Backbone:
């Protein structure tokens, strides 16, 4: 067992460590400059502590310390800084209505390179300009549960914002994700690796998902909530696929569409 | 073409009609007592006006009136009260960051009776204690798109709250939904009608959705986000079904699980 790096107690709400946590929580620029992000909740902090070098600091309120017996057990395994805080400070730090009083600052993992993530029989999801943090988080959670090999994002909302993290329920630590600067280049890279791209579209001209199922060696492309995929992308994908709709709704929520397409892709053995 | 019932202009922010709208927006009790709810946005108001006797009042800001040429066309078809408001009043009424300046007060439709909704070869979704408005709205939108025959809710969050309405994207007007006071009674009623109930559970003992597909004459039961279905319900369902998971996530978001199960049910012809 590795020792705790340092154990401190903070009682002042103006303490710079607390101020730093709140800046990381609220400001994308600080998160990106420092390559750090914050998480909140007993379960997700426990989750995070299973990954080496992910967690930098753990904050626990007095009440949480009493309530969750053995809370130290999970922190002891990693050399993290354990910080005891008052309940009042917990209220300043929380992003929820009823805080559990457990928080952490984590390091953004080093991104994997695209070649590391690709294999010719892999199954991938590509997200273009997904803007709603709840949607992005839900998609990552779904990809984790269903076992997608990797997710690529281009022009999406920030993956390490508190709203996305919360919606992932810890999947953000598990699903391999790469942010790509250029969607068209990614399309080319996928093709060179023998991976076929399926553009999810609403057009009646597209094939129904019942007839045209992505499977091994495929990437499903999902577009923005309001506008779908850019034409420059969908025009260059090998296939156009639509989820057949019988009712009056004109479209599914982007996360739901991603989930159903992913479910079909994962179940296709071809 | 029916005439507009009445056309008025409101410039004072303390006007009782505006105050009433805001109460309906913010207070569940007022919505339930008066059997009214509010909607916001050009598209959903247009949608609502296609249904007879649904819309009571339409509010349009000066800017919206100029921007959306022909905005009257859609209001003219129904005898609604058309109310012109200033942009400042629109800012008071909105529930979004950037309002389109179009609002309406709608009447809660008379609920259909259960026998009206049931047929022995129908396909149904039952929601028990879904508490997140975004989830409930997304599920209703998905059921509309995929063509579920009816949705039953028991102990869920309020269907006519602005957050649910927004997430449905208009599907709230289209999907037949019945609120049931007692889940066990509903289970019995379904059984008496020859409809088999499938409890969505996480247990490994349940059959995988790949082996056990709900189809015609089936109802899929989805439980609460944190706790799943009450045992009193799942123990009495004919089948237990789980969505097979390969990754590290312990569960899917409740709306996503509902969507994937519904997708499979709608595609099953048996």
Residues:
């Amino acid at each position: 067992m590795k020792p705790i790096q340092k154990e401190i107690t903070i009682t002042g709400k103006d303490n710079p460590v607390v101020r730093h946590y709140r800046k990381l929580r609220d400001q994308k620029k600080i998160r990106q400059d420092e390559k750090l992000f914050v998480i909140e909740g007993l379960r997700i902090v426990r989750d995070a502590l299973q990954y080496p070098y992910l967690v930098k600091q753990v904050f626990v309120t007095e009440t949480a310390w009493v309530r969750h017996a053995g809370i130290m057990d999970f922190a002891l395994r990693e050399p993290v800084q354990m910080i005891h805080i008052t309940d009042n400070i917990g209220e300043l730090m929380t992003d929820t209505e009823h805080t559990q009083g457990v928080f952490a600052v984590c390091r953004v993992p080093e991104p994997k390179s695209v070649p590391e993530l690709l294999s010719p029989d892999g199954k991938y999801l590509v997200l273009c300009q997904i803007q709603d943090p709840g949607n992005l988080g839900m998609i990552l959670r779904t990809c984790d549960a269903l076992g997608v090999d990797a997710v690529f994002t281009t022009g999406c909302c920030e993956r390490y914002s508190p709203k996305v993290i919360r919606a992932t329920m810890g999947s953000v630590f598990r699903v391999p994700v790469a942010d790509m600067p250029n969607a068209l280049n990614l399309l080319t890279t996928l093709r060179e690796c023998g991976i076929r791209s399926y553009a999810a579209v609403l057009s009646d001209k597209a094939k129904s998902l019942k007839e045209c199922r992505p499977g091994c060696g495929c990437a499903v492309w999902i577009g923005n909530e309001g506008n779908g995929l850019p034409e420059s992308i969908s025009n260059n994908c090998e296939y156009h696929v639509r989820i057949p709709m019988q009712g009056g709704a004109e479209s599914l929520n982007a996360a739901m569409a991603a989930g159903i397409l992913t479910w079909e892709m994962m179940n296709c053995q071809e």
Notes: Chain B has a mean pLDDT of 92. The CA atoms of residues 91 and 97 of chain B lie 9 Å apart.
